[in-house]
UniProtKB/TrEMBL annotation:
Name used for this protein in its record: Lipoprotein
Matching PROSITE patterns: PROKAR_LIPOPROTEIN
Keywords for the protein's UniProt record, in alphabetical order: Lipoprotein
Superkingdom field: Bacteria
Amino acid sequence: MQKIRGMIGGLLLVGLLAGCHSTTSDTSSTTVQPTPSKISAVRSVTTHDFLGRWVSTNPATSLYLNANHQIAWFQKGSASIHRHANLALNDTKATFTIDHDVVKLTLNNANSLTLDYQGTSITLIKDPNWQPNHSTIPTTTNEALKSGTLTPTFKLSY
């Protein structure tokens, strides 16, 4: 009896497989049309995308943008800048003003931005360990540019 059931099951499977096999040929021709494509690393941004701590080792620079619109900019050999500023967004760029000079921030991707100020362009990397809503902004250049803090490291979370 089990042999008969096994044979019937096998015949059903073979029948199903044979029924799925199609012998029709495709005679239609398809034409592929090339389309121009544009790839952009960042399509749209919000103010939140710019918030955080951004650092560079050369020149030693640290830029802080927190959720309360506080901006702090520390650079080795320059006076630090602390102020309240609103970011003006345009495409993938944000701008704010320091002493009548415009500072342009351009997001390259989620972890990198370019800062342009008075003819100087600096690429900064985002520090994933600094939280714009909770972390504090340093008050001195020595504290902001401490050795080892200009290369962001990812914290392991368990």
